[in-house]
Amino acid sequence: MNCPSRTDDSLVHPTWNQSPQHLNGDLTTRQDFNGIVNLREQRESGNNAVNMQISGVDEEDTPSEDIAKLASDGEGAQGTMRCKDSPWKVSLARYSRRILAILIKYAKFVGPGFMIAVAYIDPGNYATDVAAGAQTKFALLFIVLMSNLFAIFLQSLCIKLGSVTGLNLAENCRAHLPKWLTIILYICAEAAIIATDIAEVVGSAIALNLLLHIPLVAGCAITLVDVLVILIFYRPNGSMTAVRAFEVFVMMLVLGVVVCFCIQLSLMPSTAVGEVFRGYIPSGAVVESNGLYLSCGILGATVMPHSIFLGSGIVQSRLKRFDIDEGFVTSSVPIGGNEKDEIYRPSVAAIRNCLKYSIVELSLSLFTFALFVNSAILIVAGSSLFANSDAGDADLFGIHKLLSDTISPVAGTIFALALLLSGISAGIVCTMAGQMVSEGMLNWSVAPWLRRLITRSISIIPSIIIAAAVGKEGLNATLTATQVVLSVILPFVTAPLIYFTCRNRYMTVETGTLTDGTAAEGVKMRNHWTVAVLAILIWLVIAVMNVALLVLVGMGKA
Q1: Residue 471: which of 126, 207, 216, 194 has the closest Cα?
Q2: What letter would DSSP give residue 344?
Q3: Can you list the residues of the chain whose pLDDT is less than 50?
Q4: Number of neighbouring beta carbons within 10 Å of residue 93
Q5: Residue 275 to residues 213, 234, 379: CA-CA distances in angstroms?
Q6: C-beta separation of 465 from 197 below 8 A
Q7: Beta carbons within 10 angstroms of residue 515's beta carbon
Q8: Are 157 and 495 in contact (CB under 8 A)?
Q9: Nearest-CA neighbor of 542 among 497, 503, 496, 494?
Q10: CB burial string 282-312: b at 16+ within 10 A, e below
Q11: pLDDT, position 337
C-alpha cells in the first residue's frame, strides 16, 4: 500500500523506518493490512526465515500483533500446504470449481429445449422417416442431419427474439407488421398448426389402436381430452416451480421416447455401422425418384413452423425470474399482453445472464435427443423395410407388424409405445403454440381454457374426419402429406423471424432515462452480418426445395 511515512518496501527491516508518533495511521490501519499482505507474499515465495516483530505501540493499545499472529497461525498452515501443492493441482482445482458453477447454473435452464425438441419427434416424423428408410435405406440421413442443423439455427434466433423483445414471434408480428400481413401470416400459421395436429392426433390414434385395439375415431377423441387435462397445469405467468414441474413432465415423455428407441435399436439385426454413417454424407438419392418429396417431408417434419412460435415464447419465464430476484421488476407484471404500460420487458442484465445458457441448452437438446430419435426411426425402417419382400406396406402399421413378426412382439410394442408418447407430448406443445399464435396475432381476450379448447378443436375436427374417411389405408399417406404442407409453409413463417432479428429497430433494449428526462441510448442486439447472411442462405435453401417440390408435384413426378 502507499504509505508516505515509510521508506522501505516490506517489513523485513522495520528498523529502517523513522520513529512515528504513537497510534498514528502507519502503525495501526495501514500497518495491519500491509503487514498481512507482505507476510502472505513472503510465505508463498518460501521466505519464512525472517521473524518480524512490530514494535512502538503498547500491546494493549494496538491490534496489529493480534492480526499478525492470527494471519501467521491461520494462513501459515494454508500457505505451507499451498507451497507443497504443485501448480497444476491448483489450476485443476480452480477450473473444477468453475466448471461445477457453470453446470449448476446450466441446470436451471434445462427444460425449454426439451419442450422445443418435442416438436421434432412427433408422429409426422415417424411417417416421413419410415417412408424414407423403406425407399432409400440410410441415404436420407443427410437430410435428417441438415434439418436438425437448420432447426438449431432458427430456434436460436427464436430464443434471441423472445429474450430481447420480451414478446414471442406472433406478438411481434401484430406489434410491428401491417394488419393485412399479420392476417396472412396467421392463416399460414393456423394451417401449419392444423396440419401438425392432424399428424399428432392420427399418430396417437394409430398407437392406441396398435396397443389397445381402440378404434381410430375414438383414439382421436381421447387425444383431445388428455392434452386438455395436461394443459390445465401449465401457467406461463405462474410460479417458476410450477413451470419447471410442467417442463419436467414433458422431459419425461421425451426421455421415454429415447429409451424406447435405444431398446429398439438393440433388438435390430446387425447392421454395418459404416453404412449407417455414410448415410450422413450427401448423395444423389436426395433428388432421385421420390427423394425430393421425402426430403421436403423430413424438412417439414423437423423444422416445424409451430415450433418457431413456441421457441420464441417459452424463454421469458427465466428472464423474468432473474429480474424479480434482482429487483428490476415485480411479479405482478405479466409476460406478453396487450397493455403497453404493463408488458414485461427483460433487462439487459437478464438477457446477458440467460441468453447464452438458453441457446446452449436448446442446441444440446435438439442435437442429441431430436437428432437421435429421427435417425433411429429411419435406421430401424431402413434395416427392416428396405428391399424386403416380406415388408408389405411401408407405413406405421406395416413396420409394427414386421417388427412384431420378425424380431419379437416386444419390438412392435415398444415402437407403438414410443409413437404414443411422441403423440401426447407433441399434442401438448402444438396446443401451446396454437394458443400463442391466436393470442399474439388476433389479440383474443377469453379465458385460457376456452382458448385452448377452441385451438384444439380447430385442429382435431379435420383429424377425426380423415380418420373416419380414409381408415388405415390412407393414414400414412395423410401423415406424409401433412409434413410436406408444413415444409411449404415454413418459408412464410421464418421470413418475419429473420427480418425482426436483423433490425436494430426491434432488437434494441431500453436502458432507462437520463437525468434530464430524455431516453438513454439502448443496447443494440441485432444479428451480426455473418449470422444474417447465414440465415438468408438457410431460408433460400428451404424456399428452393419447396419450389422444386411444387414443380414436381405439378408434373406428377412426386
Answers
A1: 216
A2: -
A3: 1-2, 10, 46-64, 67-68, 70-72, 74-83, 392
A4: 11
A5: 37, 44, 10
A6: no
A7: 6
A8: no
A9: 494
A10: ebebbeeebbbbbbbbbbbbbbbbbbbbbbb
A11: 59
For the chain, the first-to-last Cα distance in angstroms comes to 81
In whole angstroms, what is the distance from residue 204 CA to residue 405 CA? 22
- The confidence score (pLDDT) of residue 523 equals 83
CA-CA distance, 550 to 209, in Å (whole number)? 34
* Cα–Cα separations (whole angstroms), residue 72 to 33, 47, 50, 81, 531: 13, 13, 12, 14, 56
Residue with grid cell 408422429, as numbered in its chain: 123
In order of 396, 467, 481, 518, the CA distances from 475 in angstroms are: 9, 7, 10, 61
Q: Which of 343, 430, 161, 315 is nearest to 438 (CA)?
A: 430
| pLDDT number for residue 14 | 54
Question: Alpha helices, DSSP H only, in 166-215?
Answer: 169-176, 179-212
Backbone angles phi, psi at 282, to 5 degrees: -55, 140
Q: Tell me the HSE value of 451 on the side-chain side, using a 13 A CA sphere.
A: 19
Identify residue 121 by its one-letter amino acid code.
I
Closest residue by Cα to residue 174 from 449, 444, 488: 444
| Amino acid 43: pLDDT | 56
Other beta carbons less than 10 A from residue 272's beta carbon: 9
Three-class DSSP category at 497 = helix
Residues 317, 243 contacting (CB under 8 angstroms): yes
Q: Which helix (H) or strand (E) holds 508?
A: strand 508-509
Between CA 477 and CA 482, with CA 481 as vertex, the angle to 5 degrees is 120
Report angle CA 479, 484, 485 to the nearest 5 degrees: 95
Give buried/exposed letters for 346-356 (b at 16+ CB in 10 A, else e). bbbebbebbbe
Other CB atoms within 10 A of residue 545 CB: 22
Q: CA 294, CA 557: separation in Å to the nearest integer?
A: 12
Q: Are 255 and 113 in contact (CB under 8 A)?
A: no
Q: Give the pLDDT score at 430.
A: 79
User: What pLDDT, on the 0 to 100 scale, is given for residue 500?
Assistant: 93
